[in-house]
Write a structure and sequence with these properties.
The structure is a homodimer of 123-residue chains.
Chain A (H helix, E strand, L loop, with lengths): L10 H14 L12 H8 L3 H14 L2 E4 L3 E4 L3 H25 L4 H13 L4
Antiparallel strand pairs in A: 1-2
Helix pairs in contact in A: 1-3, 2-3
Chain A binds a DNA duplex (30 and 30 nucleotides) through α3.
Chain lengths: 123, 123
DNA sequence: TTTGCTGTATTAGTACAATAATACAATAAC
DNA sequence: GTTATTGTATTATTGTACTAATACAGCAAA
């Protein structure tokens, strides 16, 4: 049900984002071990290298750590994950305001859009 | 001040979006004539071919019409432009909810984010 | 030691965006 | 009619991003 990969953007990037979300939402709990590169690659139906690239970005973000033959573990630092989750959500909000501003909507009008969109989510 | 082109996405696509916004926000008014391909290309600092590709997408969207040697004119159909502007804004809102949902935020929580973000826009 | 699992590095193939240089077509202005 | 300017089409080239195939390296358990 996951891994809805689009052709329009780099796959490794989408993989990174999905893995990121899985960690931040607790699907891969803090301190736990993650599935192996090849395992995840098979699950997502991509080349191991592509998945690896995504995982290395997780390392870079401090969300995971990898040791040579022992596998990869999720950070135990829950402060970090909570903060990052908030930051990503804040970024989404800022992006929304930016996009609507470019279309000539004031912040108040943009806020109205959100309220209206929230009412009817028919799908 | 415009034409903030990023390397991360196709240039012709960004050009299209910017031109689109210029029309929807009235910078190129309904029924008016647009600058020529070469002129716009020079202004944006890109190859004429690249700009042309963007402009042809405008044609495809029904926002502009081009006649051979007479130039390109913005559609006079203000209903279309108003509707498209609303649609784009609605899309931004939906995207916001989608992104926050992927991070485990409920719609109510997402709405809270917007309100809080709206207060402190310190930049 | 051997086997099998980790993560990692290197290489090459493929696709495509962007540019550039032209040439062409059609209309308007003179 | 000539000239200038418009949009359009074509072709080649360059650079680069993405992916895949493959080989390598390190550790653990049998």
């Amino acid at each position: 049900m996951d891994w809805q990969l689009s052709e329009e953007r780099p796959i490794f990037q989408q993989l990174y984002e999905e893995m990121c979300r899985r960690i931040l939402t607790g699907r891969y709990p803090p301190g736990s071990r993650m599935p192996s590169v090849r395992e995840l690659a098979a699950e997502a139906g991509v080349n191991p290298n592509t998945m690896q690239r995504a995982l290395q970005q997780l390392d870079g973000a401090g969300l995971t750590e990898s040791t040579r033959a022992d596998g990869r573990t999720v950070t135990a630092d829950e402060t970090l994950t909570r903060r990052l989750r908030q930051e990503l959500a804040g970024g989404a909000a800022r992006r929304f305001f930016c996009e609507t501003a470019a279309l000539g909507f004031s912040r108040a009008e943009a806020k109205e859009l959100i309220l209206r969109e929230e009412d009817g989510h028919h799908e």
